[in-house]
């Protein structure tokens, strides 16, 4: 990939790990909390990283950014998580320049999601870009790229059926309950955690189980009450967690803690209990498997559940890839124009100097010199000349480098610096 004047002596990288090679435990090691993400951004600024975007979901953690070497970005990730460089190297991927751009398109379009067509990642990418911009870490190149990925994602969602049908981790969990629990409408269901996945799961529970015995618990009670009010459900205090678990037949854990919030010691009842852990890192300790009455299912298993909906979605992959190719081509076309933007800018300034000198000469010679008209004519001529050069460079991509060097030599240009 040509430099395109993207960044002096630096390349664009995508580094990260995902469900494809990293299990839930490893992904948990590299999970970023809100605070650790902010610390990472500050460390990036301290290390003179000019632009990057950081995403961290239950299925992947990634950094897209500029660096002299990808290890600079890997170190940022490892310094702000529990993960180590050795762990990262065993399961990670590193993409550079065009491959990094293509990777972001596939991730944002749902083609790289654990459940094909799951578009939750695009909202995460948007908010991550906003966070970077608020911290002065989003240059025009990366901002334009994120916007292009968002555009491709929107088109794929509206022009294909790759996201048709209700298939997500939250829906898969409800599917699992419906398939494995008899008379589910009569069972006591406890949902612990009302973040995004918890809210989606709650909505699917209400919609598909016809159950009127759903209880919500969240560390922050008012968040649970907002969800409960929408669906007319029961809310209990966090202090009542152990008691409510004892009353439950099904426990769904969707908390965002970095340590297990549920273990075998909190389970006092001996009646059958199904636990679904929808959290990354895992929020249910594996020691609950020591209890004969407990069945533990983690989201990694739920995500592997395939059905007719997923099979139908696969038929729309070629259409989605065609959309990505088109939007990516448009982005690369914009990127190509950035290659010669500094030269065109320098040419415009040089021509303006010529015009200023000539106007000064004519102003002294002519008693009836029309300042306003002369300035307007000069401006229009300069614009036409620079447009002509720009069109030539754009249409002659194979010889762009030679043309740029010739223009610089003829006009003795000093390029205006730019951060793309």
UniProtKB/TrEMBL annotation:
Residues 179-304 form the Quinate/shikimate 5-dehydrogenase/glutamyl-tRNA reductase domain. Gene3D superfamilies: Glutamyl-tRNA reductase, N-terminal domain, NAD(P)-binding Rossmann-like Domain. Residues 320-413 form the Tetrapyrrole biosynthesis glutamyl-tRNA reductase dimerisation domain. NADP(+) binds at residues 193-198. The active site is at 58 (nucleophile). One of its GO terms (molecular function) is NADP binding. Substrate binds at residues 57-60, 113, 118-120, 124. It catalyses: (S)-4-amino-5-oxopentanoate + tRNA(Glu) + NADP(+) = L-glutamyl-tRNA(Glu) + NADPH + H(+). Keywords: NADP, Oxidoreductase, Porphyrin biosynthesis. It is an enzyme of class 1 (oxidoreductase). Its EC number is 1.2.1.70. Homodimer. This is Glutamyl-tRNA reductase. It comes from Seonamhaeicola algicola.
């Amino acid at each position: 990939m040509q430099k395109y004047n993207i960044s002096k002596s630096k390349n664009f990288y995508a580094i990260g790990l995902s469900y494809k090679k990293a299990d839930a435990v490893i992904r948990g090691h590299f999970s970023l909390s809100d605070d650790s993400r902010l610390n990472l951004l500050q460390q990036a600024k301290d290390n003179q990283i000019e632009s990057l975007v950081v995403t961290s979901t239950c299925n992947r953690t990634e950094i897209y950014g500029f660096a002299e070497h990808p290890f600079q970005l890997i170190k940022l990730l490892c310094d702000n998580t529990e993960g180590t460089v050795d762990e990262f190297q065993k399961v990670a991927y590193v993409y550079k320049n065009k491959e990094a751009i293509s990777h972001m398109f596939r991730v944002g379009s749902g083609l790289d999601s654990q459940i094909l067509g799951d578009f939750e990642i695009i909202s995460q990418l948007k908010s991550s870009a906003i966070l970077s911009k608020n911290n002065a870490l989003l240059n025009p190149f990366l901002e334009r790229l994120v916007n292009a990925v968002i555009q491709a994602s929107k088109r794929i969602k509206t022009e294909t059926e790759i996201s048709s049908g209700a298939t997500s981790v939250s829906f898969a969990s409800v599917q699992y309950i419906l398939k494995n629990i008899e008379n589910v409408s009569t069972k006591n269901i406890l949902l612990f955690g009302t973040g995004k996945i918890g809210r989606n799961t709650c909505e699917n529970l209400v919609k598909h189980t016809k159950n009127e015995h759903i209880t919500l618990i969240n560390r922050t009670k008012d968040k649970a009450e907002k969800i409960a009010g929408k669906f007319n459900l029961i809310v209990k205090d966090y202090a009542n967690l152990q008691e409510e678990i004892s009353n439950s037949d099904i426990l769904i854990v969707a908390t965002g803690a970095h340590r297990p919030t549920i273990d075998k010691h909190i389970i006092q009842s001996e009646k059958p209990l199904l636990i679904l852990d929808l959290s990354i890192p895992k929020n249910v300790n594996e020691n609950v498997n020591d209890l004969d009455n407990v069945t533990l299912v983690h989201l990694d298993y739920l995500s592997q559940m395939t059905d007719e909906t997923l099979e139908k979605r696969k038929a729309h992959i070629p259409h989605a890839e065609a959309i990505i190719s088109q939007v990516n081509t448009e982005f690369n076309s914009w990127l190509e124009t950035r290659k010669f933007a500094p030269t065109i800018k320098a040419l415009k300034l040089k021509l303006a100097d010529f015009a200023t000198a000539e106007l000064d000469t004519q102003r002294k010679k002519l008693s009836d010199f029309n300042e306003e008209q002369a300035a307007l004519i000069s401006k229009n001529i300069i614009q036409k000349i620079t447009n002509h050069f720009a069109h030539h460079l754009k249409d002659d991509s194979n010889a762009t480098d030679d043309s740029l060097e010739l223009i610089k030599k003829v006009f003795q240009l000093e390029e205006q610096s730019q951060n793309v």
